[in-house]
Specification:
321 residues, mainly alpha, 0% strand
Length: 321
């Protein structure tokens, strides 16, 4: 029971419980809208909503926009294929040709990645009581579009697991990881793990910028482009600064332990400041004075940490949050 409670608490902290609620609401809403419109196959709307909904609005906007564009193209091509089949063209060759052509195009145009699947859904439709095959094809396209729109709406209305908040937390976690190689009492995080987390941070940054731009557009406010992407690059520079210092420390005299501890303290303090949206105290980087061999990298680290904190403060002070 204790383990289960801990897992539930962890899932709540990282937003997975809320994402589960988003998915459940999207399922019910997509089915309800489709049923209210008396569409014959409401589960296609449910399937599309499940594909679109992401843990944060920024990712959902990207997935929904791409799927919506691909759905429109795939629906048109699929309806065209059904029309050809209705006029005597052999179904199997027409289906394979259309889906293969869309699959080839989607490899070079990611915005239409969902087009082959949408076309296949339409092309697999057949007649049913009260509806011809061509009518069923159009209705399926409408159901898929409804699912995409409902998924977007649910993600934007229930956007508790915001990409911006996840981004700040990921930055703070990375700063603490950068501090570990400088602390003799802590086990260093493997460099491969740090680099993997930096790549994940870059992905979250794109989602956070997309989400922020979408909210600013809804509120009709200007917003700085790529603000989170720039912050992710600054975190990468801090990683480079701390890695250089960590490599230089073993060659120094034993009295260099004090500067190393001060640098680790500065990184952890900056991480805590990011979580609290406060200004970090970096005075410990100036005293005790570091050895000449690491004075340059320490100066760069202090500069980059101050710049990172200033950028976060500017971001939080901006109107679109």
């Amino acid at each position: 029971m204790t383990s289960l409670a801990a897992r539930v608490a962890h899932a709540r902290a990282d937003g997975r419980l809320w994402h589960g609620a988003q998915l459940a609401v999207a399922v019910v809403a997509a089915y309800a809208v489709s049923s209210a419109l008396h569409l014959p196959e409401s589960l296609w709307a449910v399937m599309s909503a499940l594909i679109v909904v992401r843990p944060n609005a920024g990712a959902s906007v990207g997935a929904g926009g791409a799927r919506l564009g691909g759905t429109v193209l795939g629906t048109l091509c699929g309806v065209g294929g059904v029309w050809l089949r209705h006029h005597g063209v052999d179904a199997a060759p027409a289906t394979l040709l259309i889906v293969a052509a869309l699959a080839f195009a989607s490899a070079t145009l990611p915005l239409i990645a969902s087009a082959p699947v949408a076309a296949l859904i339409i092309l697999s439709s057949g007649s049913m009581p009260g509806h011809s095959a061509l009518q069923v094809a159009w209705l399926r396209g409408a159901e898929v579009g409804i699912g995409v729109l409902v998924g977007l709406g649910v993600s934007l209305l229930l956007r508790a697991a915001r990409a911006g908040a996840r981004f700040a937390g990921a930055c703070a976690d990375l700063l603490e990881a950068f501090a570990r190689p400088l602390d003799e009492e802590a086990d260093a995080v493997p460099d491969s793990t740090v680099r993997s987390r930096l790549r994940e941070l870059a992905v979250i940054a794109v989602q956070a910028d997309r989400e922020r731009a979408w909210i600013a557009r809804l509120r009709r406010r200007p917003v700085e482009r790529d603000a989170h992407v720039q912050l992710a690059r600054m975190v990468s520079r801090v990683h480079q600064d701390s890695a250089v210092i960590a490599r230089l420390l073993p060659g120094l005299q034993p009295d260099a332990a004090a500067p190393a501890a001060a640098i680790a303290q500065a990184l952890r303090g900056a991480a805590q400041a990011l979580r609290a949206r406060a200004t970090p105290d970096l005075s410990m980087l100036a005293s005790p004075r570091p050895a000449a061999r690491i004075a340059g990298p320490v100066g760069l680290l202090a500069h980059d940490l101050r710049a990172l904190a200033h950028r976060f403060e500017s971001l939080h002070a901006a109107p679109a949050r």
